[in-house]
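Q: What does the assembly look like in three dimensions?
Context provided by user:
Components: two
Sequences:
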Amino acid sequence: MSLLQRFQQYISENHLFSSGDPLLLAVSGGIDSVVLCELCKQAGYSFIIAHCNFKLRGAESERDADFVQQLAQNYQVPFLKKEFDTAAFAEKNKLSIQEAARELRYSWFEEILKSENISALCPLPSALLTAHHLDDNIETMLMHFFRGTGIHGLRGMLPRQGHVVRPLLFARKQELKQFATANNLAWVEDSSNALDKYSRNYFRNQLIPLVQHIYPEAENNLVGNLRRFADMEQLYEQALALHKKKLLEFKGEEVHIPILKLQKSEPLHAIVYEIIKEVGFSAAQVEEVIKLLGSESGRYVQSATHRIIKNRRWLIIAPVKAEQSQTLVIDADEERIVFENGALALTQLKSTNVQLVNDPAIALIDKSTLQFPLLLRKWKKGDYFYPLGLKKKKKLARFFIDQKLSMTDKEKVWVLESNKKILWVVGQRIDDRFKITDSTKQVLRIQLTNNS
Amino acid sequence: MSLLQRFQQYISENHLFSSGDPLLLAVSGGIDSVVLCELCKQAGYSFIIAHCNFKLRGAESERDADFVQQLAQNYQVPFLKKEFDTAAFAEKNKLSIQEAARELRYSWFEEILKSENISALCPLPSALLTAHHLDDNIETMLMHFFRGTGIHGLRGMLPRQGHVVRPLLFARKQELKQFATANNLAWVEDSSNALDKYSRNYFRNQLIPLVQHIYPEAENNLVGNLRRFADMEQLYEQALALHKKKLLEFKGEEVHIPILKLQKSEPLHAIVYEIIKEVGFSAAQVEEVIKLLGSESGRYVQSATHRIIKNRRWLIIAPVKAEQSQTLVIDADEERIVFENGALALTQLKSTNVQLVNDPAIALIDKSTLQFPLLLRKWKKGDYFYPLGLKKKKKLARFFIDQKLSMTDKEKVWVLESNKKILWVVGQRIDDRFKITDSTKQVLRIQLTNNS
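A: Here is the predicted structure of the complete assembly.
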């Protein structure tokens, strides 16, 4: 089969696009993208050529831009180009030149795919085609492998990821060269030896030949790996989806995970990782989250956007912005709960054993007045209670003014409530309705230990 | 934590064995196995030392055997050794020296684990311990990776596989060296540079340092890979088990797979591979089996022990010995079926369109006499039919004698039956009860094409 036929077969087998779809081709002017243009032409696809000038190689950059413009003219297809001050963008955003170029490139392509202006030229392209080939993918796999990876890195690039389509991933570099020669194609050479290119070249020119001393078939073996690893990823994802279905309970903005069920799930490390990575946690935090399973209620691990909070028999994943409304549940048998300000220790006593103390960090509550579970939460506007010693209710906001609390102190106040009544403004004053009396039999003693 | 503590932790976390279990230690006398002995001693385990003398390195082999014997004496533990003529065994069984040594070694160890004689010395050991460490496992993973592998090769060795336990897999080579030095241990050096050792050394001394030019953390990254890949394998196996449960129907010695369901299963290639590899098929045969899904009934792919046969809407995996009893099902709408001797083409005709022919390769049957499905199978002892033109039944064995069939011809004869009556001794004679008559309306014409 010719390269053209295999190109068309690969596109149809992988459902990359249909013959009528307008395409956007990312063309640097190098041999790979020049071959991609010619194949699209020969296959009869309609396409636009887009070229990025990263302004990193002086006159060479201009030469490439002119070359690609001429190419588009020869094919009589629309041509788009954009110049970037890549170095400045990299510095401003603290990126490597390669990362900066990638980000600039793909965000411009995304812009084109959505752009209304294009439609004056031709139909809006439905996919962005890049000229990555099989040798690129072997190198990608090797680089991921030695940088450390899971299944997603191992299987390299896929023929379709979102809008980005890579219809040359089936072909070896050598085959593209032969096609270019056979079709008398002209292309430009990139003299760049920027870091990313350099490590690719190192793998290509140093590492693979070294391995071939021992396994002459190494390159073909790696090609086989890519196919197997893509299958492996599918099975991995299937099993993972089942675990997630069993474990995750979606409650508004929060996700609740039953700890007992999670602990029984195997392999725990991978399952935890796959769940938490979606909300900004890193692989390094997996161990912390696993430790959380056995720790006190109220402890949490945090990412830039989310908290994972241990709350009794549940792990709760909640957006950080919802922190204000965070509520901890305290069941009747709870002995200790950790929250933002410190920890509460709960003890049940016979009233005969109780010594009255005058310490705002200790609350003594008539247990018969309580309805479990209790809720521990930040105070909010509108909250009121019956301060101990008063027979009428008072807004907390008012109470804080009377107590001369500072603004920042006020912000930190938590309350404990039972059946929607506040029984303790934690560390400040209990509610009169919950105090112990002569007829009290069982006492709940709650002691606050502040964070030191 | 000291190496000893980590050793004990690794054993307990992975449930490798309990402190009272008697152990069999495979000891070459090299630094790794010497450290393993000392760790087992310090941890208070009871063990036997076993040493293989492969007689491959002349005087050095004897030196090693003596050294290990002395080691056992120092530890006052039972010592077992065995000498092998490895070179002869390799030649006889067409194995490489390394493969031969591995087979001899593990089959002797298995023998010891089951042996009654040992119990005179001490309790029967419950596990065989080898001294493979983390660097060995990195090399194993790298070798598999470049030879081409799936998930099972990728995750390297496991701490327990059957009776074989590898309690040093957590430790780097460097740590074993430090332990050996700190404990004043003596060991012997192996000057062998046999092929397997050579490729390991090549990876250790050439490839990893090369990669470290680019990724200085490469070794640690590979250690991380090993842990992630073991998790990945578990998820892979979970998903696979579900697919198998859905797809495989066990019928006696056969496994039946509904083709429609299989075709809808993703990823098809991996699922087919994992099903067929268990019955002796190679990865290279996966494509053939996938082709089988769309081919004619009766086609098959074969391994040393099994056949996978396409039979209408089913793939049937059957042991090759069951071949004689192979039965192909022919439904009313079947137009062509392939079997051992060739193919049958089935056509339905109005009786008015039928031309009588005198060709034993063509059967003309009164369709109203048939009950579908028909069965196509080899003839067997006890079979009888009513040969066309005779009004009484005849045993096939007798019929073949009358027809002067040779022994080998007889063995190849197949019959076609309807409702347990033979309607055609294929290629020989039809049954009188199924012939077309004046009152026949619909005719089934069956034509045999022999394998050329």
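Follow-up: Chain B has three domains: 3-223, 248-323, 326-450.
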